[in-house]
Amino acid sequence: MIDAVRSWVEDGPVWFGLSDQRLISFPVSTYRRLAGAPENLVKRVQLRVQGHALRWEELDEDIWVKDAIAGRFSSPHAHA
After folding, report:
1. N-terminal to C-terminal alpha carbon distance within the chain
2. CATH of the domain at 63
3. One-letter-per-residue 3-state SS of 41-62
4. Which end of the chain is more exposed for a tag (fewer CB within 10 A), N or C?
5. What tens digit of pLDDT does each residue of 1-19 get?
6. How many domains does the structure of the chain reveal?
7. CA angle, 15 then 13 then 23, to 5°
8. Global pTM value
């Protein structure tokens, strides 16, 4: 199973590095809670569940790595 080994926010998108060496990113605007949050809070992304989830504690947002890889964004889009 592929998991994330690091995560960060840089120049807009959320990035995460996978155990198979790939780098994945998605726009912060994909998730309403992230899009409307101050940049300093968005940058506080953490890996959880042994690298299977991205977590923003202060924003109460969780994103499964497998869903982000597949482009399945279950939260309402900020543009909707």
Report:
1. 32
2. 3.30.2020.40
3. HHCCCEEEHHHCEEEECCCCEE
4. C
5. 789 999 999 988 999 999 9
6. 1
7. 25
8. 0.85
